[in-house]
Amino acid sequence: MSHTPANQAPMYRIGAVSRATAIPVSTLRIWQTRYGAFNPVKTGGNQRLFAEQDVSKALLLKQLTSAGHGIGSIAPLDLAQLRQLSTIGQHMPTAPALAQPVCLAVVGLGLANRIESGQFSAVLNQHRIQVTDVLEDLAAAQHAPLSDKPQVLLIKVNSLQDTVYESIRGLMQRHPFAQTIVLYHFAPDRVVHSMKRAGLTVRRDPVSDSELAELLQSVLFVDRERAQAFGQAGAVIAGRKYTDATLRRVASISTNVLCECPKHVAELIAQLASFEAYSQECLNKNTEDAHLHSYLRAISGSARALFEGALEKIAQHEGIDLRETPR
User: Fold this and answer.
1) CATH number (domain holding residue 24)
2) pTM score > 0.85 for this model?
3) Rounded distance, CA 75 to CA 82, Å?
4) What confidence score (pLDDT) does residue 218 get?
C-alpha cells in the first residue's frame, strides 16, 4: 500500500466507492486484500483512499465477474485489459443483430465511471450502451489510439475555449464518430454557438445522471428496426452532413429531370435540422419535459439523416456537387 503526500488531492473512501459501484464494502476489501485488485493510498491518519481508476476497475470487475469470470484471474489485469475483455464478451457473434450495443468513447475518467455504473438503464431501456475507449482527458486523447468501435464521442472539459474546440475538432476528424456530446463548466457563448452550428451537442455541467441519459437517448434512433433497415449501425443517428449554406445552394439549382426535387429535399433537411436543434435546446432548458424533447430530437434527427441519404441519390442522378464551397 502506498502513502499519499500531504498535498495530494482527496480521493474516495471505500464507502464512497461502494455507493458509486453498488459493490458491498466487504467485497471490495476482499478484492483488495486477497486478490490485490486495488492499491489504495494511505493517509497519515491511516485512512485508505481510492483513486478514480480504482472506481473504474471495480465497475469492470463487477461486470466481468457477473458474466462468469473468476476474480482471481482478472484482478491483476489493468483497466485497458479489463475493458478489452469486457468488449469481447459483449460482441459475441451469437448475439442477435439488434442487440448490439451503442459504443462510446469517453474523455474523462469520472464521466466514464458514471456511464459504466448502470445508472442509465432505466432511461435507455431500448438501447444498450458500452464504453469501449476511455481517455483521462482531452490532452491524452490527442495521441492515444482508439478502437474502430465507438460511434459516439462523449467529452467532459472544465473550460471550453477556442483551443479546446480545435482539439475536439481534430479528434473528430481522426475518428468517424456519428455524434459528439460535450459537457463543460465555463465557455464563451460564441464558442458554444459555433459548436452547436457544427452539429455537436453541447451542455453545461452539472448534468444529473437522468439528464445525461436523456442526452444519450436523443442521439439514438427511436426505431431500431428502421435503423437496421437503413444501415444505421448501432442505431446511432449520424450528425449533420451539410451546412445551411450548402443546402441553400442546392435548393437554388434548377433541374429538368427531377423538377423541384433537389430544392424540396434540401429545404426539408434544413427544416428538420432546425427542429432538431430546437428540440435539443428545449431538452437543455426544460428538465421536466426532457424525455419528450429527447424523443422529438431523435425523431427529427432520424428523418434528417434519411433525407440526407435521399439528397445524395438525387445529387448523384443529377450530377450535383454536394461538397461545401470554400469561403
Assistant:
1) 1.10.1660.10
2) no
3) 9
4) 85
